[in-house]
């Protein structure tokens, strides 16, 4: 079987696979990514156990929130991508969370000072003013976010050379938090090694993590995908690096 046919079979398999929710189980045995050293899920669980009301913004499919062993009495989550809303509602029944569908970039549909804790893993965009508004005095915002130039090697393998990143810098987040009246009490950064063992893993990842190659479709990028397939076949797994940062702020 020639390399081109192998590529097409792997790509077709990845295109047929669902990408709902925010789990990455489909990549098991095909791709890896190091985890940040701070243990975001553990930090969320610790804080959830000591508050009365909490909110998870951009919950995805609810995967992180569902693992909280001791949920607060009032627990809410928001999600702006319609395919994830029903996934999150099913996933979060166990912890009694109410999942609210919101419009991208829309205001948080909650009263002022509603929550002791607001958390968010990989938010699309942090609305710092809205976050500060819904936090109670003394409340905490805890978020693991995508850092600048994340997966840059993969983006450039498909798109070609890119200019230096100008968005998602941790210092920008700190400035925005402080401008909204919050006090940043913790900021940590991590660079994490990721590997892709076949082009199917690459295609599935690009379909799911849509900011890596904005507007990605297989038809549009078939030529660089075939080139990357050949590179993996000759050199082994493709290596990229994810950028993450943890920010914690209080009102």
Automatic annotation (TrEMBL):
Quote the PANTHER family the UniProt record gives.
Answer: METHYLTRANSFERASE, METHYLTRANSFERASE TYPE 11 DOMAIN-CONTAINING PROTEIN
Q: Which GO terms describe its molecular function?
A: methyltransferase activity
Q: Which UniProt keywords apply?
A: Methyltransferase, Transferase
Name the Gene Ontology biological process terms: methylation
What is the protein name stated in its UniProt record? Class I SAM-dependent methyltransferase
Please tell me whether the keyword Transferase is annotated for this protein: yes
Give residue ranges for domain Methyltransferase type. Answer: 55-141
Q: Which Gene3D superfamilies match?
A: Vaccinia Virus protein VP39
Q: Which Pfam families match?
A: Methyltransf_11
Provide the coiled-coil residue spans: none
InterPro entries noted in UniProt = 23S_rRNA_MeTrnsfrase_RlmA, Methyltransf_11, SAM-dependent_MTases_sf
Q: Does the keyword GTP-binding apply?
A: no
Q: Which organism is it from?
A: Micromonospora tarensis
